[in-house]
Amino acid sequence: MEMNKNLFSALTLQKRVMAIILSLIVLVAAFNIITTLIMVVMEKNKDIAILKSMGATSKGIMKIFIFQGMTIGLIGTSLGCAVGLTIALNLAKISSFLEELWGIKFLPEDVYYLAELPSRVDYGDVCLITIGTLLISFLSTLYPSWRASKLDPAETLRYE
After folding, report:
1. What's the pLDDT at 145?
2. Is residue 110 domain-resident?
3. Domains held by the chain: number
4. Containing domain of residue 93, as a range?
5. CA dihedral in degrees (126, 127, 129, 130; nearest 10)?
6. How far is CA 74 from CA 26, 82, 144, in A?
7. Secondary structure of residue 54 in the 3-state scheme
């Protein structure tokens, strides 16, 4: 490690940059959840007003939209984890398949010190990212669900 200190510091920097990029991707997905739920609230104004006039509580309305947003977040996180782990665990097979398919060598042995693309899954990082993603998904559901719960049924149904 002392002989290749620059290499290891570059790898550490690369890991931090990848964490930042992954966080930005998750934040974009969270904004997509927020905008989707806001659009659903805008489309369902009349339905929400009818539910509230029939006796639904603000807390119940909030739960509906939190559940919907968490379902979106859970499905996206699950699919992302499944695809990411599948690719990471089979990276050598995938790269050799693509090299044969396209007829190019990704890591020529005479140029790089690596014969194949290395891949090691750190399950602690995967769990941390999954928990963080689900937390961000939950937080992104709060504003739209709160907005739906504060809808005034009399005002909404007045113009319908």
Report:
1. 93
2. yes
3. 1
4. 22-155
5. 110
6. 12, 12, 17
7. coil
